[in-house]
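Work Package 3 (structural annotation) set out to generate three-dimensional models for the target panel prioritized at the project kickoff. During this period the team completed the workflow that converts sequence records into discrete structure tokens, so that structures can be stored uniformly alongside our sequence database. As a representative example, we reproduce one entry of 142 residues exactly as it appears in the project archive.
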Amino acid sequence: MSDEAALRRTAELYALGADRRDKDLWRQVLADDVEMTGPGFAIAGLEGNLGSIDALGQMFKATRHVVHDQTVLIDGDGAQGETRSTAEHRMTGPDGGDVLLVWAIRYQDQWRREAGAWKFTKRTLIVDWEETRPVHDVGGGN
């Protein structure tokens, strides 16, 4: 796998880990000294960031994170770049029905290659805009 493909895979596994509430997936792609920042938060270290998975489960009924595209610059065993995504959050709206809170997001990412595997060392979340819309179940199940 090329370095570019491996870096994209880190973003995809991070997104999947968030949606499945799977801390093991995050352990695969987050360095022990990872730093995550965004609007209103800053979390340092792997264990602290793993707690974000629990918070997602408490705040939202379900989530879906989709990685759209990524630009990266690789320099030896380090890399930096931007990952553009959409983050969808299903939650109870003010009228009691479910709504979807959708964020258009960008991560300013930094990675380090550790034992042949790329891991995030820093992710800075930027939310470009958000929208809220109703959810209509169509029988797809969980």
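Residues 23 and 123 are 17 Å apart (CA to CA).
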